[in-house]
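Researcher: Please translate sequence to structure tokens.
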Amino acid sequence: MTFSSKVKDELSRTEIGDEQSARAEAAAFVRTLGYITIKGLNRVEFEFLTENAAVARRIFKVLKIAHNINAAVSVSKSNRLKKQNNYIIKIDENITRQFLKETRMIEDNDINIMNFNYKVPEEFIETDICKRAYIKGSFMGSGSISNPEKSYHAEFVSNKEDQSKTIQNILKTYGIIGKSIYRKNNYVTYIKESEQISDLLALMGANMAVLDFENIRAVKETRNQINRVINCETANLDKIVDTSM
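Model: Translation complete:
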């Protein structure tokens, strides 16, 4: 299991909290893993798609707490070479329209591709607990963290600029500065400073991941300090040899 997968697994097991924070997390999942299909006049289908079983379980629980929805869960094989499982969490077509209203993806009964609202309404992220829940859901939906033994890099990938800006603005309120790039038709918010990545993990409630990350960081810093001392002493010895000759 990758470090990123371990983080998502830990986050999926954290306490969901009250209905308000559950709605914030659900809103994040909708905007990162949600797929809307218009199936004809006044017919619309909504489902979540993820390759992470822990995230699929989390979505199911959050939907129940936030919207009292018992979603249907199914599994299919990916078309990719590794044949990974795809977990599909589907909203009943009879309540999809109401669900889209509650998550503020639409404002009225009019369903068309031009009026979907990917910008996150302030009502979902007003409080501290809701901000944290939204970042947590966004990370489980579209985030990743590289193995800290190799490099320091965390990112959120969004296909809508509004979603990316919301993530950056929330992180900024906690002193975490995410930089942005446009990559492969997606808006990417990324963090490379090790301390800020540790702060991000703590913000989301991934306490075990914070401990693992900090242990790895401490070992790397100690190793780097030792290497600097060795290099310095080697350079001094070279100078002594040069002057003696």
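Researcher: Any highlights?
Model: Residues 20 and 227 are 50 Å apart (CA to CA).
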